[in-house]
């Protein structure tokens, strides 16, 4: 594969406009990312925050300071923080009113290539985008849009039509922060940097693929959002589908954005139409008592899904996906299970097939399970893991990486239009025609009905306890 990967020759944005400046996303992710950029000397000269409420300069600066102290590891570089504060301007006003955008133009102070970041509810996307166009603020500018990209295929197409009526496609950056995680990037590298893998990475040798995204906490104060989304829209159609694409796609022509996106879109387009019996929806006991949740809510906090990627490589290999809240632990793990040896030379060889295990969160590791003989005359053995753990200390945070890439015009870690539409197409039918939620107890692995999906493939494999990255972790382990 070539290194024709990016569009870094594109002019760098000279200002950032942050719509939703007073929101949780800005405080938890974007302010720490801006501070990290300031420490590296990559901060743009002007950062303009826009939100509905009036704020004094002192309130604005205190909000940024508090966010970095709480979410960004504290302020360790006073000069960098000063540069960030000096760059910030604030505009308070109604997104529906042209005068808000007139004030924004003045606050940009002559910037020629602003990047507009929509960290606002999706219901406001169209309003903000159209007003940016009407105010003349879209020329030579970029648009950064947070997921979810619509609620279904129709709304995703409608959103894209609005965005592309104001901005050219190559100026639209659709953020799925999962793509900026080091462990997710390593999936792409591991797949195509190791020659031993390719002969095994197909239906002849792989029995099934399992993915688990589990969280040991509930919706918290996000009840209102969850009532509009649910687990399928929140993390499956985007985060888990991105992992499916990286595992299942054919080798792209290069690492260039267009080639990667085409390879991913091919996977989504090859997903067999999902039926209601491919899906189990769960809801943890107590969800309906959470803040802003309807007392008769049918929104899922757990999803188990069986899908097939109907390509020559993966025909009839089941991919099992599950994600949920209030499960036993917080982790993201993938297990690729191989078929037993074709020659049954040893009686115990097929008891527990070999597998590759990818731990993606909270640590990053790869483990290969293989059988080794026990000491003695008998030809019996046990499964052992060859475990390699990455030390991610110093890892660039996803929003830090993605925001910097968007400002530089590098779209390699963003999501393309074709892939977005293809992913929605894969789940569009079951968004409407699906079974009702089934209750499950907090601290369990979801409703028992989910077990039936994988009954023919040995059942779900729960994420294993963390081995950690201590000295000696990258060794064989039982």
Q: Which labels suit this protein?
A:
32% helix; alpha/beta; Dihydrodipicolinate Reductase, domain 2; six-stranded parallel beta sheet; ten-stranded mixed beta sheet; disordered N terminus; globular; 12 helices; 478 residues; Rossmann fold; disordered C terminus
Secondary structure: elements and pairs:
Layout lengths: L14 E5 L4 H17 L5 E6 L5 H15 L6 H10 E5 L5 H10 L6 E5 L6 H10 L7 E5 L6 H14 L5 E4 L6 H12 L12 E9 L8 H6 L1 H19 L8 H13 L9 E6 L17 E7 L9 E7 L6 E8 L16 E7 L2 E10 L7 E10 L7 H11 L8 H16 L5 E3 L35 E2 L1
Parallel strand pairs: 1-2, 1-4, 2-3, 4-5, 5-6, 7-10, 8-15
Antiparallel strand pairs: 7-11, 8-9, 9-10, 11-12, 12-13, 13-14, 14-16
Helix pairs in contact: 1-2, 1-3, 1-11, 5-6, 6-12, 9-10, 9-12, 10-12
Can you describe what's shown?
The chain is an alpha/beta fold. It folds into 2 domains: 132 residues, Rossmann fold, CATH 3.40.50.720; 280 residues, Dihydrodipicolinate Reductase, domain 2 (2-Layer Sandwich). The protein is built from 12 helices and 16 strands. The strands form 2 sheets. It has a 10-stranded mixed sheet with strand order 15-8-9-10-7-11-12-13-14-16, with helices on one face. A 6-stranded parallel sheet has the order 3-2-1-4-5-6, with helices on both faces. A hairpin with a 2-residue loop joins strand 12 and strand 13. Helix 1 packs across helix 11, helix 6 packs antiparallel against helix 12 and helix 9 crosses helix 12. The N terminus and C terminus are likely disordered.
